[in-house]
């Protein structure tokens, strides 16, 4: 299945570069396809659902990658160069670092170039195969694996992080992932999670920049508030919860106690007008949930 999916993506990439752009998957088509895939995940029993993630995200990458460039930075979704400052702050050269949901590998590759011993995992064999191609000549390693069942011994890593992964997991699988992240961290090791905050309430149509609604469903199975995520992190055995002022900017400033972000979240959540709420969320740094935790 993996090789068939990978070859299909490469054919789509080549076809997309040789045909008019109208032949590629349109945003509207991708929104509808992702809604269908999300329904499959929501409706499946737990065991079947956990086995299904790989197939789902092979298809998502198959739709998305042909419209993107050939380099790792051009193929990112939530990851971007502006996140590297915080990652460099919470790790040091020589640290064992695990990225969960690495996609085609941009952040893992950059951290490896900065002296970290990095392993990236993704549930999509399509994404991992491309990441491995990008990794030629670098020490970064990439494996096909699920966020819910990390294939590593206890206490294997100094830092674990995930960028825009939590929202793609069923809530029970998200809890399992946090427990797994805590398990593979060394005592005192850090886990950083970045995920959209539902207080800004962006629909799939808005994320794709098209008119209309996403009434059929959303590939985001659940978006988490600071309050919800803090409770789950503590339940998983992670503590000392702090948050950067901004994940991509002001990362050199001291990390805030999580209470400050939760207070800002409450203020923003009380604003009745969507546009004003989104502007306030961006200004106060709560448009996304960004939490750095330590294994107790």
How does this structure look, described?
The protein is of the alpha/beta class. Helix content is 44%, strand content 17%. The protein has helices at residues 2-18, 27-43, 46-64, 84-90, 106-113, 125-134, 171-184, 204-208, 226-235, 258-269, 274-284, and strands at 96-100, 117-122, 141-144, 157-163, 185-196, 238-243, 256-257, 288-295. The longest helix is centred in the first third of the chain and has 19 residues, at 46-64. The chain is globular, with a radius of gyration of 19 Å.
What is the overall number of helices? 11
Mean pLDDT: 90
* C-alpha-based Rg, rounded: 19 Å
Strand line-up of the largest beta sheet: 3-2-1-4-5-8-6-7
Poorly predicted regions: 13-22
Biggest sheet features: 8 strands, mixed
What assembly state would you assign to the polypeptide chains in this entry?
single chain
Q: Name the helix and strand elements from N-terminus to C-terminus, one letter apiece.
A: HHHHEHEHEEHEHHEEHHE
Summarize, please.
The chain is of the alpha/beta class and 296 residues long. It has eleven helices and eight strands.
Kindly list the characteristics that best describe this protein:
296 residues, globular, alpha/beta, 8-stranded mixed sheet, 8 strands
Topology:
Elements: H1 2-18, H2 27-43, H3 46-64, H4 84-90, E1 96-100, H5 106-113, E2 117-122, H6 125-134, E3 141-144, E4 157-163, H7 171-184, E5 185-196, H8 204-208, H9 226-235, E6 238-243, E7 256-257, H10 258-269, H11 274-284, E8 288-295
Parallel strand pairs: 1-2, 1-4, 2-3, 4-5
Antiparallel strand pairs: 5-8, 6-7, 6-8
């Amino acid at each position: 299945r993996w090789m068939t999916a990978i070859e299909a993506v490469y054919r789509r990439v080549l076809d997309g570069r040789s045909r008019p752009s109208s032949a590629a998957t349109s945003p509207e088509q991708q929104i509808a396809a992702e809604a269908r895939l999300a329904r499959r995940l929501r409706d499946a029993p737990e065991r079947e659902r956990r086995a299904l993630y790989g197939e789902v995200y092979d298809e998502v990458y198959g739709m998305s990658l042909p419209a993107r460039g050939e380099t790792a930075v051009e193929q990112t979704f939530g990851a971007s160069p502006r996140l590297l400052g915080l990652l460099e702050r919470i790790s040091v050269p020589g640290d064992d670092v695990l990225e969960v949901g690495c996609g085609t590998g941009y952040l893992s590759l950059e951290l490896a170039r900065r002296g970290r011993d990095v392993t990236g995992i993704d549930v999509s064999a399509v994404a991992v195969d491309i990441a491995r191609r990008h990794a030629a000549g670098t020490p970064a390693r990439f494996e096909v694996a699920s966020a819910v069942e990390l294939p590593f011994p206890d206490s294997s890593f100094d830092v674990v992080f995930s960028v825009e992964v939590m929202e793609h997991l069923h809530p029970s699988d998200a809890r399992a992932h946090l427990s797994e992240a805590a398990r593979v961290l060394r005592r005192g090791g850090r886990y950083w999670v970045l995920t959209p905050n539902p207080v800004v309430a962006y629909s799939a149509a808005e994320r794709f920049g098209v008119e209309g609604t996403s009434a059929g469903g959303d590939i985001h199975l659940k978006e988490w508030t600071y309050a919800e995520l803090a409770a789950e992190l503590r339940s998983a055995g992670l503590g000392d919860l702090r948050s950067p002022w901004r994940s991509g900017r002001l990362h050199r400033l001291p990390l805030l106690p999580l209470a400050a972000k939760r207070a800002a979240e409450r203020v923003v959540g009380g604003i009745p007008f969507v546009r004003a709420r989104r502007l306030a969320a961006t200004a106060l740094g709560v448009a996304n949930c960004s939490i750095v935790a330590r294994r107790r």
